[in-house]
Every structure is written in structure tokens, then in C-alpha cells.
Amino acid sequence: MTFNSLEFAALMAVVLLLGWSRRLVLQNAALLAASYFFYGYWDIRFLALVCVSTYVDFVSAQLIADARALGRRLWLANAYVVGCVTAFATLAPSFTAVVARAASQDWTASRVGPLLLTILLVAVVTVCVRVAPKWPEARRKRVFLGFSLAANLGLLALFKYLNFFIDSGAALLSQLGMNVTSERLSLVLPVGLSFYTFQTLSYTIDVYRGELAPTRSLLNFCVFVAYFPQLVAGPIVRAGSLLPQLERSRSFAWGNLARGAPLVLVGLMKKMALADAVAPCVDAVFSAPGATSSVNVVTATVLFAIQIVCDFSGYSDVARGTSRMLGVELPVNFELPYLARNPQEFWQRWHISLSTWLRDYLYIPLGGNRAGAGKAYRNAMITMLLGGLWHGAAWHFVAWGAFHGGAIGVHRWVQPFLKRITFLRTRLGRLGSTSVFFAVTCYGWLLFRARSLSDVGVLTRAVVEFPIHPGQFTLQRPAAAFFLALPVLGAFLWLRSSVAEKLWRFAVVRGATYASMVLAILIAAGQDAPPDFIYFQF
Known about the structure:
By secondary structure, the protein is mostly helical. The chain folds into three domains: 6-13 and 23-250, no CATH class; 253-334 and 425-538, no CATH class; 351-420, no CATH class. It is built from 20 helices and no strands.
């Protein structure tokens, strides 16, 4: 189920109707049911992973804070995870047959395995809970933080990176002259695995650091992990921001609808009328990099820069809008990233929830910039390399991370010299630095969008040859909705700025803007089946 589907609209209508209840337990129970249905609509089997992650981090955080805090909640948590895994194993064939969304693998033969592993997990946790009060506090905290890290990162490594490591190891051994054959495992990457893994890990780490008290409600924590507006593609929300909102009663308000609907409209227009319109042009070039001209490669790279920002920020807008309708505020995830003038500013504007996560839980613990310039460069490079690998299990994603890590290092090195250039502080200088860095960012997107490192070499050669041998422009034109949506989006951003704030107060201006957005969405909806959001399987 995607945001730009009728099924999602129906789900939102049901959740909003249930929101009339003023009892917190009923509100959160409805949210949890909607979240599990939303995620399970794609493939109900992978809901078991969400439940296991929820169970591990709920129990771990309780034991980190206080070894005797669980009490009866342990048995509730045990019943929850075993019951959910059993239910999903039982319902999987019938449910997926109805909605026809599951992968084609036979589930029957593998039902017992996940259930037995879950029972083993519950047994180990139960034993640990009994002996944990006897451990020194520091040891207990380290053990259960390690348990949370191992369980969550282990699932991520298994489903996302195992085949990558197998293939890379086999390739390395072949380069050393050893004749090896590698067998890939038939694993489907669960939607949103990287996002909810980082979200639950931040909760456990914050409890370990003493920055957050663990919630005592399993229901509220389940909703925090599986909250459907941002479950599969972010933003990555910290528990300190989201949990307090889930722990207080919310009432249905027309004002929430009025504030949330424009964000949903903008997000859908970005996705359907802009990102999906240029996707065929981008796919045509990057699927056959050696069979097109340099001008097509450069054009497709710029179009992909438009596609990815509209696709991903569009998802974030819809997530924030739908969540606002439900009375819950999510953080801003994008702040016009292509207006950045340097790499540091770019990462303060692009995928803000991930960049701040990497800063707080990776870069700063590594030492940040506290131990001298050399180690600061090293820490930035490690952070960006792992950030690139987070995006995908392929070497071109690692190269993309290294590219941005190198850009950060170079900028820090030349920054003292740049500060002496007064021209860069003028309006023309700022425009020039923004344009130059946009070109740098676009090359980074070439690394990101390429299918392999060998394709990167072919595409890079085409870019280098562009001024000398540009070739012919043969890309197909984007869809008609693109030519309507792009100026409408620009007008919307300008009208909402302080410059044109007075104009936005007139109902006719707002109405004309929103009507144009609806028209662009309707034009886009009449085309072929749109692709999924880019970040759905990251």
C-alpha cells in the first residue's frame, strides 16, 4: 500500500473516524491496527520482524533502566511477540491471497522456523531477566544495550547485507586467483527495515545514556515503532519527540485536517506529477549507460536530482500531513537542499532525520571534531561511508558515501581560505557557490543512481566528454503534468515565504494554487502505473 493509492485513502478515512474516541487506549489500539495493516498489506510475513524488533527494544530498555522494572509486563511482552509471529504465520497464505501483494516464495515450509526462533528468543530473555538483578549495574546496561544492537543490526545484516558480503568475498577471492562459487540466499528486503531499525536503536541508546526514561506501556511503544505515516521511509523520529505525543489523548479537530491536507497535496504532486514524470527518462539512460550520448547522461543526472528530491521529500510531506491530521507532529526532513552552498549545509537540509542520527549516534561517539583536524576528517569519512552503505548494499552506494565524506573534508580544509574571499559573501557569490555545489551534488547522484561501479565509470566518462563530444539530445519529454507541477510548486514555495506572505492571505490565491496542484495530480494519475517511492526498500 502506498500513499498515492485509493487503499491508503480508505485506511486514512477509517483511522480518522476512529479518532473520534477520546480514550487513549482505543486511539492507540486503532493506530497500531492501522499500522500493522498498512505494513502487512505489502507482505504480512515481515510484520514478524517489526514485532521482534519491538519486543527486543522494549525489554532491553526496561532492563537497562531497572533490572526489576519489567514485572508482569515481561509476560505481556512474551505473549505479544509469540502471538504476533504465530498469527502472521497462520494468516500469511490467506491474507496475501486476498490482497495479492506478497512475494512469490512458498511460505508453508518456513512457518515453523520463525516461530521456534521466537520461542527461543523469549526463553533466553526470560532467563536473562531472572539473573539480571544480580549483575552490577554497568555490566547489566552494557549487556542489554549489546543485546539490542546485536538483534537489530543482525536482522539488518541478514536481510540487507548478507548477499552483498557473500558476493564481495567471492569476488575478492577470485581476484586472488582462487576458484570459488557463491550462492546467494533468496531473501526479500523488507520494506522500511533500515528506517525502523534506526528508530528503535535510538530509543535504546537514549535510555542507556540516561537521556530518556523508558515507556512502561507496551502498546504505546508498539505504536512508536510501527507508526504508519513514517514507518517505511521516515522521517526517523526520536522517541523523545514521538512517544510523548502518543502518550497523551488526542481529539479529532478540523484544524488538524486543514493544516495537514495542504502538505499531503504538495507531497502527492511532488511524487506523481514531478518525480514519476521524469522517471522514464532517467531509467532509459541509467539502464543502458553505454548506449547514449553525453548530453543525455548529463540531462538524466539532473533529472534524477529532481526525481529523488521530489520523490523523497514528497513522501515526507505526505507523512507529516497525514500525521498532522491525526494530531501528531513529525519533524521536517527537508529544507530546500539544493540551495546549499557547501556539503555541511547540504546535510543540514537533506534527509535531516538521518543526518542528525548519524551525527548523534556515530560521528560524535567516534570523537567528532574534538580530537584534532585529522581525526575529524577520519570520523566524517567513516560516518559518510556507513551512511552510504545504509542506503544500499552495493559498492556504488559506498562510493557515494565516500564522495560526500571527501567533499566534507575538502570543504573543511579550504574553509579558512574561502572566508577571506569577500565576493563569496555577495548575492552573486552566494548564487555562484550554490550553482557550483549543485553540480557537485548532481555527480553524487550519478554515483547513487548507477547500477554498479562499472556503470559509474561509463557514466563518468560521458560526463567528462560532455563539453567536447556532447552528442545528440534524444530523451523523451517528461509527462504533461511535469510542466504544470514545476511552476506551481515554485509558486507555492514563493507564496509561503515571508516575501509574499500578504498574497497568501487571500483565499483566491490559495484556492488557485491548490486547484492547480489537484489538476497536476489528476493528469499524472491518468498515466501508467506509477513506480513505488524510491526509499521504500532502503
